[in-house]
Specification:
binds zinc ion; four-stranded mixed β-sheet; DNA Methylphosphotriester Repair Domain; alpha/beta; Arc Repressor Mutant, subunit A; 4 domains; 15 helices; Double Stranded RNA Binding Domain
Length: 359
């Protein structure tokens, strides 16, 4: 009987595929030679002829053999078992549920049973920020919600676990980007400097607070860009400052001509979730793309695909947070806040630079 089977997959694995055995999910992937598609063992699609099947230990090995990922079971999005990542996610959840202040590193490390320095390191690697920064961003987010709901400052502070208001006034300006009172007025009184310049991809607007870049946009005309800046920062005072911003502006224009992008200081207001998405975007290598569901998996929330798409669509700093490197898994380049044609051009540019660099 077994001589009829030309392929060497074991009976155990073949049964796992036939039975859509979830114990094998993430451990094996099967490619079907007649279709050129590879799947998870749990894929709901009709099961293939055994002789057409090859088995691989990972998506990359299936893809190296020329198989494309199945559009029903998205095998490329599997996250391999990773105990360190699970502990980091548990630490995130713990920080989020803690209403009275931000837990210390020692407390977190006891909670997830990982040494403090190891936890600090893997947390930073996976989430992109330290546990303290994560807790602070999370608390800032809550504080904003309370202030937006019209709560007075003292009780909003109390709600989110600040011991006394004086502590917030010490810490908040760097988190909110302004004092709580100024935030309650939503930018009124804040000075934002900006400049515009022509670039290979149209006009580029670069805007900054005293602390760093707060807005980078691409557009057809200067008037259109100024309009959008005004909408976003309706209560701030906007001042054109071509000379002061020239250095940052040139770095971005140079980037569009093939130069590497240096680290530039940023001052964006974000929720903890947006921060995690944007950090994941910054880790997509130049010349490559990811899907929205890839990013959702990377930040450990595989079902949050729509929220990831929304975080991409609300990215305030074009190029620096490369939201253009996220494309739909169904094909095409997808949407782009600053124009689909521009996204297409940007991806092509980056592919050329990456190729030139690797040659
Ligand atoms: Zn499939």
């Amino acid at each position: 009987m077994s001589s009829l089977v030309s392929n060497s997959i074991s009976e155990e694995i073949w049964q796992a595929i036939l039975n859509r055995d979830s114990k094998f999910d993430g451990k094996i992937f099967y490619g079907v030679h007649s279709t050129g598609i590879y799947c998870r063992p749990t894929c709901p699609s009709r099961k293939p002829n055994r002789r057409q099947v090859s088995v691989f230990p990972s998506p990359s090995e299936a893809e190296a053999q020329g198989f494309r990922p199945c559009k029903r079971c998205h095998p490329q999005n599997i996250i391999a078992p990773n105990p360190a990542r699970d502990k980091v996610l548990a630490a995130c959840r713990y920080i989020e549920t803690k209403s009275e202040g931000i837990p210390t590193l020692a407390e977190l490390s006891a909670q997830v049973e990982m040494s403090p320095c190891h936890l600090q390191r893997v947390f930073k690697k996976i989430v992109g920020v330290t546990p303290l920064q994560y807790g602070t961003a999370r608390r800032t987010e809550l504080l904003k919600q309370h202030l937006h709901q019209g709560e007075d400052i003292a009780s909003a502070l109390y709600e989110v676990g600040y011991g006394s208001s004086s502590r917030l006034y010490e810490k908040a300006p760097e988190q909110l980007g302004m004092t709580p009172a100024a935030y309650k007025r939503r930018g009124r009184g804040e000075e934002i400097r900006y400049t515009t310049v022509n670039s290979p991809l149209g006009y580029l607007l670069v805007a900054a607070t005293a602390r760093g870049l707060c807005n980078v946009q691409l557009g057809e005309t200067v008037a259109e860009l100024e309009d959008r800046l005004l909408q976003e920062f309706c209560h701030a005072s906007l001042r054109r400052a071509d000379d002061e911003l020239q250095e940052w502006c040139s770095a971005l224009v140079d980037y569009l001509s093939g130069m590497p992008l240096p680290q530039l200081p940023c001052d964006v207001k974000a929720t903890a979730f947006q921060l995690r998405v944007w950090q994941a975007l910054r880790e997509i290598p130049i010349g490559t793309t990811r899907s929205y569901s890839n990013i959702a998996c990377l930040i450990g929330q595989p079902t949050a695909v729509r929220a990831v798409a929304r975080a991409c669509a609300t990215n305030p700093i074009a190029l620096i947070v490369p939201c253009h490197r996220v494309v739909p898994s169904s094909g095409g380049v997808g949407g782009y806040r600053w124009g689909v044609a521009r996204k297409q051009a940007l991806l092509e540019l980056e592919k050329q630079y990456a190729n030139a660099r690797d040659e």
